[in-house]
Specification:
The complex is a heterodimer of chains A (about 800) and B (about 130).
Chain A lengths: L8 E5 L3 E3 L3 E8 L4 E11 L10 E4 L6 E4 L10 E4 L10 E9 L14 E8 L2 E7 L4 E6 L2 E8 L6 E7 L5 E8 L12 E4 L10 E3 L2 E2 L16 E2 L4 E9 L5 H7 L17 H4 L2 E6 L8 E4 L7 E4 L3 E4 L20 E4 L13 E4 L7 E8 L5 E9 L9 E5 L1 H6 L5 H4 L3 H5 L4 E2 L1 H8 L19 E3 L22 H13 L4 E5 H7 L9 E4 L5 E3 H12 L3 E4 L7 E5 L8 E3 L36 H5 L2 E11 L2 E2 L32 E7 L11 E5 L9 E2 L22 E7 L3 E5 L17 H13 L36
Helix pairs in contact in A: 8-9
Chain B lengths: L1 H11 L22 H4 L1 H11 L10 E7 L3 E6 L9 E2 L10 H13 L24
Antiparallel strand pairs in B: 1-2, 2-3
Helix pairs in contact in B: 1-4
Classes of the chains: A mainly beta (about 800), B alpha+beta (about 130).
Amino acid sequence: MTYPTMLRLTGYGDKWSVEQGDTVDFHVSCDGPATYRAEMVKLVHGDTHPGGPGFKEVAVASAADGTYPGRAQAIHAGSHAIVADRRPLRVDGFTLQCWIWPTMPTKVDGYWSPGPQTIMGKWAEGLGYGLFLEEDGRVSLRVDGQTLTAADPVRDRAWHFVAATYDAATGKAVLHHEPQIRYALDPVPEPVMATFGPPTHTEVPFTFAAHPGSVRPDPASLEPGGWLMTDHYNGKIDAARLCSRPFTRLEIETMKLGAAPGMDERRSIGPSADLGAAVIASWDFGVDVPTRRIVDRGPYRLDGDLVGAPARGMTGHNWSGAHTQWTAAPHEYGAIHFHDDDVDDARWQVDFTVRVPEDLPSAVYAMKLTTTDGDEDYVPFIVRPPLGTRQAKIAVVMSTIDYMAYANEHQASNFGSLEALVYRTPIMAPANVFLSVHREYGHSMYDTHCDGSGVHVSSRLRPVLNFRPKCDSVITQAPWQFNADLHLIDWLTEMGYEFDVITDEDVSYDGLERIEGYNVLLTGSHPEHKDGPYLDAIHAYKERGGRLMYLGGDGFYWRHTFHPGYGRGELTEMRRCESGIRPWQAQPGEYHHQSDGRLGGMWRFLGRDMAAVSGTSMVAQGFDVSTYFKRTPESLDPRVAWAFDGIDYDERLGDFGLVGGGAAGAELDHVDTTLGSPPHTMLVATSAGLHTDAYLTVTELILTNAPGFTGTQHPRIRADMAFHETPNGGGVWSFSSISYCGSLSHNSYDNNISKLTANVLDHFAVDGPLPRPDPAEVRPRGRFDSTPALNYHLPEDTPP
Amino acid sequence: MLEEVQASVVAMRGVAGFSVLRTEAPGSAIGVHGGIQDDVVLDKVLTRMRMQPTGAFGGKLVIVCTKLEREWRIARLSGIRGVPPTFADDRVFTGEQDAQAAILEMRFDQYPAEDGMPEHCTPAWKSRGENWGA
């Protein structure tokens, strides 16, 4: 087995949710075989575990079915900026200066993207000028094929001022490299000098963080301008300037102030009259942060385009810490952090287009790709009804934002301690091995970039190898997210329910209209990542009598935004701040989204408790094995007893299942009326006391680290099944466990989890409001009513 | 220790998950007992080994599924982004859990009996590795 060729056939659709009557473009890479076959299938069950019902697909005739010519398509990862070639950029003499914060000055042998790194310039194939980081970590000035290299390498994750001058008359080149912090034993930085011939100008653009591999664009490429870029940079660039003559060191220092447009009588275009006359470009990356543009404050408007969605809203060399939000102090957020593994769009050619018939039922579909050599891949898409219509009383909301958050995760190959987290040696699938090599497929929000910084944007315009059926996660040794949500699709199908399938993307973009009218909404197994408009719509739906079945765990945890510079649902952003379970943490001052300037992180710390959405909130996680629920006395209450029709009080609920072997597992939610669970919440079943020590309390609930936060010790490590009524005849049922849906199919769907789920669904799916509870149930309730020993209860409850 | 892990492999055979614990019946994850819940030393040894970074001591051992639901092999992580895991030996396991015990046995050889004490201090101690994301 040669790993890199293990996955020769893959692709992506330009939409994950498509409306009936609309089209989806499919982009396919078939690396080797001359042809491949594409066929539309409906996906029903994606779990291949021998203990379950097995993989289920249904062929669906499509006009797009057929055999297509195979061709390899590559992803050109790496973010960069491009300023189109214009006359002012074709300088003779020049001064080029900026601040850099390099994050990977040197690379280890075997690194997937070896070579020097481009800071900025107009350079390709040994022609032009520019600033670089050479492979030994030293800054260099290149003028055509001539290289002037600084004396010492840069320090990673430290600001350095870099400037280069070139005198066209004398050929004198000077390179300055000055660390912002100089430790006691650091060498004194000294400029270096050389004499060079003049630069040769070509049609290549002026670029940041990468340079074109050729002096001519590739007309067949869909990369912007046809420029295929190389020698990508990892790190930040701030306050870049290009001027038309060689400056003295003092002039360079003054030019740090940059251009000063916008006044006439009072000041020059530059920091002084003499310098102003030499300004060609003075880029300010702190402007237009939520866009794909970089802005030049100089007189020529040499604005540029960003490719690859690098990190913006990044602290610059002059960040003071007085403001932690780029919108409050944009002049301190003039940096862009580029990564060699950023991917915003694979930009593959379209291989075929599927027109979704208007009468194709709403469901989960895929284009099944195969070759005669045995290659196989599935490219899923979800077909939704047109806005304002519904074709069933029940709708499943698939979690596309979550699928994007986990897209192409690399935890098994990147993080050794994953093994401690999951309490067993993880099992990598061929796709995980492929991704460990092919870093150009991009990372998930659970990964760090190759330079160690957190991945806070994710695009779906690329093959996402875990947005697939037949896919187990290294986390659970079982399906996760999309493939786990097919457990629910399968159960609904086998039980004969009629249901629509929509996505969270649709709810986010279409608002309440997308879900209004459904009698009941069902979430997937792990709706953790959501944006504000989605939560607003769900809130409105519940308040107007809608019913929500939360069929998972750890829901509504992280705040997302869709990037306004991209199309509907194409690119999502999430920042991990100072709390929550985090595989990485954003840098100080970088907690606010580049998409909208607002604070990121956990919804809880933005005033939207998870349990306020779903009735229960994330309390613990563990990934070795799952367990079961036991009913509580509250389950006998008439408000909820209907859900347990046909289930004995002492039955173990879900002591079986395809995710960890039980219905309560992986990530667990509990009732907490101080964390958003409404005070009238009924706690009807729980897995308290049944979990292993692999289950650990979430970090945000550990205010002081102390022993006793593991599964066999802590009373709050439990999944609580819960119910509460919402206004106007609505209600919420929380199943509170990621592994829950994996238990639905046990014993040919004849089991107590299946029974309980059907009871709740049937109750919630009726037309009109839910039956009103006994009037005696309407009474004031404090949030701490359940813990009267504490002195927090309402004043009216105080004993006389 | 090895015996206890092997017993858990037998107990968890057929479970979509794994822990070094015995269960109430083979193929069930329910009624966990024994294993790391009884043997504190075993729990500590396993955790210590599991916390090792990807490239430690010649590469951390991992399981690779080579045929869906049918075959699994042991590989070594490279610790380098872009360098794939390489197979550690020729063994092919036909049970999903079987390699768990085999890896423990290999690690007794792979890892030193003692690590992390003052006498093992190296320059690498001065900066965090990939295991500590913050």
